[in-house]
């Protein structure tokens, strides 16, 4: 396609400066040039995830004995919590392959991929994607990975995140005569990579130079897997806003060797590490912010590390720890579950209650509730039983049943709560429309007091980096303070974890090769945006 077009894309300065206070947030609301929420997936209850990316390549002789398509499919199943709208896998046999093998569809992984479709996805390497739409409509045309055919061969891309300067980037790509068939950031990235870098190319395409050039123009937010016929590039934006990590496929029998010592059967790259053990892989490390890694049949290596503008700090999304990631994933050298426990400990230090027991809204607040219990000395007991089949009912509830709200989703363990003063921990409050019915359920079951403790700070601002957050008016923390909210939902008291407390909990046991650069995005809590906010957006 457009592989020989001169590239002169916009600079990162096309985003506004770094802070979005309440007042300039109002200004933003007035700018209605392009409402990016249009066409997005609906935010029905809470926050919605972005996407999950996955890649796998076999080492040694090709054709490989490693079941690449199955590895990717299982890897995507482990990332299903990051997107349930659509998914896809693209595989390649190697340098001589005429075409990529592609299978994409709408819905959950298990419905999209069958034994037959997996058999057709033959190959020695491949990438996969599971999607929740943040920046384009939920339609089959937006399913990823995107595949384009350039003059230098086929290229496939999977993207997690959202480009903060996508509108100016889009205008510039269109001005270069490149057609875009969707509103997806991911197609935009794909086409931007097909443009020649400004320094030109001597002997065929210089993909690392193209990727580097794109990263200099689009500072955030993305983790990418990019597949050529015989290699995969893994790319993390210079702020490290979205996660990406590397795993090693090891032989089933390691003998006396450690996973580090044994030769790799293959390599995988993924948004999260939670699925690695189930596919016979071991977690090795994160892709560093700004890093470009190249995966071939010979192994994995760092091609380049692109610096952040003006030496700014990293800005890994703190809500990955709070809410999005699976508890068994590892970020920055620590397991997400441990960080959630630490949030609970910090919450107990900040907002202790005189009560008989601690519990959680399953399963979201459970790790934090255990942390709260250990720090406070109160004992932990379950009080809610979750109905795991509730999503399968096709019966429309009558108005009376609808008023009971979450009663169909949870049952109360009445023997545990009867006559008890209870501290109930949840990970976050977004709209505040689920906690009230839970409190009523517990009171109906005999709880004498219900104190709500939230293991994250109030959510006040939008996210422009790949997370779909309800509107300002819909966020309950913009309408009611903690005491008002307690009254509104029928709690005896309600308190949030502070922003400082959350950052401390996340950074207390963090392992970093470069501690001075450690940093986390807290923009939806503070309004301070690490890479600026797009001028064209409204919220
Ligand atoms: S604004 Fe919030 S949800 Fe978005 S990247 Fe930052 S911390 Fe994550």
From TrEMBL:
Keyword presence, Aminoacyl-tRNA synthetase: no
UniProt keywords, alphabetically: 4Fe-4S, Glutamine amidotransferase, Glycosyltransferase, Iron, Iron-sulfur, Magnesium, Metal-binding, Purine biosynthesis, Transferase
Catalytic activity: 5-phospho-beta-D-ribosylamine + L-glutamate + diphosphate = 5-phospho-alpha-D-ribose 1-diphosphate + L-glutamine + H2O
SUPFAM superfamilies recorded: N-terminal nucleophile aminohydrolases (Ntn hydrolases) (SSF56235), PRTase-like (SSF53271)
EC number(s) per entry: 2.4.2.14
UniProt pathway: Purine metabolism; IMP biosynthesis via de novo pathway; N(1)-(5-phospho-D-ribosyl)glycinamide from 5-phospho-alpha-D-ribose 1-diphosphate: step 1/2
Top EC class of this enzyme: transferase
InterPro entries listed in its UniProt record: GATase_2_dom (IPR017932), Ntn_hydrolases_N (IPR029055), PRTase-like (IPR029057), PRTase_dom (IPR000836), PurF (IPR005854), PurF_N (IPR035584)
Binding of [4Fe-4S] cluster, residues: 317, 463, 521, 524
Cofactor annotation comment: Binds 1 [4Fe-4S] cluster per subunit.
Region (Disordered): 1-24
Cofactors (names): [4Fe-4S] cluster; Mg(2+)
Compositionally biased residues, Low complexity: 10-23
Family the UniProt entry places it in: In the C-terminal section; belongs to the purine/pyrimidine phosphoribosyltransferase family.
Name this protein carries in UniProt: Amidophosphoribosyltransferase
């Amino acid at each position: 396609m457009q592989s020989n077009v001169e590239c002169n894309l916009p600079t990162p300065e096309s985003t506004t400066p770094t802070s979005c206070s309440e007042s300039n947030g109002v200004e933003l609301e007035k700018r209605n040039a392009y409402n990016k929420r249009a066409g997005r997936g609906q935010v029905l209850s809470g926050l919605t995830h972005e996407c999950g990316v996955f890649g796998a390549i076999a080492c040694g002789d090709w054709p490989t004995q490693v079941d690449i398509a199955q590895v990717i499919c299982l890897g995507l199943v482990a990332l299903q919590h990051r997107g349930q709208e659509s998914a896809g896998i693209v595989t390649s046999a190697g340098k001589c392959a005429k075409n990529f093998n592609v299978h994409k569809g709408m819905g959950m992984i298990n419905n999209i991929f069958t034994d037959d479709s997996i058999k057709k996805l033959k190959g020695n390497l491949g990438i996969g994607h599971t999607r929740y739409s943040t920046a384009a409509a939920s339609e089959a045309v937006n399913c990823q990975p995107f595949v384009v055919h350039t003059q230098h061969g086929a290229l496939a891309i999977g993207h997690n995140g959202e480009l903060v300067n996508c509108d100016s980037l889009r205008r510039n790509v269109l001005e270069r005569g490149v057609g875009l068939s969707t509103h997806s950031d991911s197609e935009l990235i794909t086409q931007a990579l097909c443009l020649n870098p400004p320094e030109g190319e001597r002997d065929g395409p210089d993909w690392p130079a193209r990727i580097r050039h794109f990263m200099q123009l689009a500072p955030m937010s993305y983790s990418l897997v990019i597949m050529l016929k015989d290699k995969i590039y893994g790319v993390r934006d210079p702020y490290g806003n979205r996660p990406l990590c590397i795993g090693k496929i090891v032989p089933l029998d390691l003998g006396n060797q450690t996973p580090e010592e044994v030769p790799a059967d293959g390599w995988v790259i993924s948004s999260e590490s939670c699925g690695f053990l189930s596919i016979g892989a071991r977690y090795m490390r994160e892709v560093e912010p700004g890093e470009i890694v190249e995966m071939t049949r010979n192994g994995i290596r760092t091609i380049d590390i692109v610096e952040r503008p003006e030496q700014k700090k990293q800005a890994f999304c703190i809500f990955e720890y709070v809410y999005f990631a699976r508890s068994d994933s590892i970020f920055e050298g620590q397991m997400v579950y441990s960080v959630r426990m630490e949030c609970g400990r910090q919450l107990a230090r900040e907002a202790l209650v005189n009560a008989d027991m601690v519990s959680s809204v399953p399963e979201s607040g459970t790790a934090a509730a255990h942390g709260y219990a250990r720090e406070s000395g109160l004992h932990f007991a379950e009080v809610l039983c979750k109905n795991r089949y509730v999503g399968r009912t096709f019966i429309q509830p009558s108005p009376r049943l609808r008023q009971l709200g979450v009663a169909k989703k949870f049952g109360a363990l009445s023997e545990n709560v009867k006559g008890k003063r209870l501290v109930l921990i949840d990970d976050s409050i977004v709209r505040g429309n689920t906690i009230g019915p839970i409190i009523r359920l517990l009171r109906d079951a005999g709880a004498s007091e219900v104190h709500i403790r939230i293991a994250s700070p109030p959510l006040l601002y939008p996210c422009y980096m790949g997370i779909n957050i309800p509107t300002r008016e819909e966020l309950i923390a913009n309408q009611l303070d903690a005491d008002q909210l307690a009254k509104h939902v029928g709690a005896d008291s309600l308190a949030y974890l502070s922003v400082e407390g959350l950052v401390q909990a996340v950074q207390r046991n963090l392992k970093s090769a470069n501690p001075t650069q450690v940093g986390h995005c807290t923009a939806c809590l503070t309004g301070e945006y690490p890479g600026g906010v797009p001028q064209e957006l409204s919220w």
